[in-house]
Amino acid sequence: MKIIIGGAGAVGKHLAQLFSREHHDITILDENPAKYENLIANYDLMGRAVSPTSIEGLKSVGVKDADLVIGVTPDETANLTCCMLASKMGAKNTVARVSTLEYIQPANREFFKEVGIGTLFIPEMIAAQEIASSVQRSWIRQLWEVENGALVLMGIKVRQNCKILNVPLKELGGPDVPYHIVAIKRKDETLIPHGDDSIQAYDLVYFMTTRKYIPYIRELAGKENYPDVKNVIIMGGGRTAVYATRLMPSYMHVKIIEKDRQRCNQLNELIENNNVMVIHGDGRDVSLLSEENIENAEAFIGLTSSTEANILGCLTAKRMNVSKTIAMLDNLSFVNMAESLDLGTLINKQAIAASYIYQMMLKADVTNVKSLMVANADVAEFNVKPGSKITKKKVKDLHLPLGCTLGGLVRNNQGILISGNTVIEPGDLVVAFCLESDLNRLSSYFA
Questions:
Q1: Rounded Cα gap, residues 129 and 156, in angstroms
Q2: Among 138, 20, 71, which Cα is nearest to 353's?
């Protein structure tokens, strides 16, 4: 596919790296060539020092033949303009990064399609959805519910008290076991486990189950003593924080600590939730945290623009016995270090945005793709079409890519765990777990 990316900022760079591994024809546009020099030196793609809103610039990179044009500069207007021009000049599909909440409302979808913009997204909103999902259970690192909980994927960091340590998975299996272990992150390696593999202490284990059995998995993992989250402290009052407070359950009480006094005043006007309090100060200040009764908080979320500050804030909260910490990492190079510090849930807007766009590139009908950033892997929901390769044989006879496993499916609104003898049917919604390099290959089975 021919892909043009407008903007060589953090999101644009991450997208370029992601797409380059699939050997697509990629061109990244930015008026400042210094932003993409390292990219074109290390990846198979082209860079052009032109504005994404330049008609001549778009013509010069063959926009009329583009399969996808993505506007991801920091400037919302530039992204909209880039996509509208590209569509009028022949591009098949367009995606624009925006910041105005009104634009992504369902009522405005058709309007933007009429002017040539296929999809709009707000990275901060997608990140906020991830945060609101993760914060609700202090003992889970990452949570994904499929079809309103018909299937649930949980990433759990297990410790010495986990009840299924050092037991070969084939001895844990059986027709009545209500979960699948679909992946294991161990230090710097992500494993798609097989029967002879076993869970070790301090692994990050991904369980696929149904909502009914969440308490059972909690007991197996040795997490019964983790408290329910009712009180949350957020460090940093940016847009992600505002969106997250709107998505959190009504029983949660939230304190936002923001260093900028003017922003505090803005937050008091923006936030209408009576359960949210805005406090002026530094969320890394131990004395301030003590004053704000951090000992009563079950969760701390670092959402400043500084990755280092978010890491330090979460470490401070952990030392003060906060059970759940979430850190926004704008710099992906910090991910391995943060994980080695046992920091908790890690969020990256660039990776989340890339996953959102990546699903458009897959051959099959993919309804959702989630990047498991820490595990260097993706989870995808596939709608099964009549006649697709995935329906032809039992799962064990399909010879799926080695880096993939099928965790479960939803059939007639019921979640079903997949085994080797499962035959997938048209109309099923299948949840697959893939190492990053194998998702596109797996999608051909569903095409």
A1: 19
A2: 71
Read out DSSP for 114-135?
HTT--EEE-HHHHHHHHHHHHT
Please list, residue by residue across 259-283, b when 16 or more beta carbons sit within 10 angstroms of its beta carbon and e when fewer do. beeebbeebeebbeeebbbbbbbbb
Q: What are phi and psi of 363, to 5 degrees?
A: -70, -30
Give the pTM: 0.84
Cα 192 to Cα 190: distance, rounded to the nearest angstrom:
7
Pairing of the two strands 231-235 and 253-258: parallel
Non-local (6+) Cβ contacts of 269 within 8 A are none
Tracing tokens 């099959």 back to the chain, one arrives at: 364
pLDDT band at 49 (very low <50, low <70, confident <90, very high): very high
pLDDT of residue 355: 73
pLDDT mean over 192-219: 92
Q: Which two tokens stand for residue 318?
A: 């952990």
Query: Please, how many CA atoms are within 13 Å of residue 370, restricted to the half-sphere of its CB?
Result: 22
Q: How far apart are the first and last CA of the chain?
A: 16
Determine contact, residues 389/441, Cβ cutoff 8 Å: no
